[in-house]
Amino acid sequence: MIIVTSIYGSPEVASENAIKALSYGSDMVEFRLDLIWDDLPEMESIRKLVKKISNRSILTWRSKKHGGRGRLPESIWLRRLGHMAKLIDIEYEFAIKGIRFPNSIVSWHDPSGTPNSLRLKQLVNSITKLGGLSKIVTYAERKVDAYRVLKLYREVIMPEKLIAFSMGNKGSFSRRIAPFLGSPIMYAYLDKPVAEGQVSLKEALLLKELLS
Question: Looking at the 3D structure of the chain, how many domains does it have?
Answer without folding.
Answer: 1
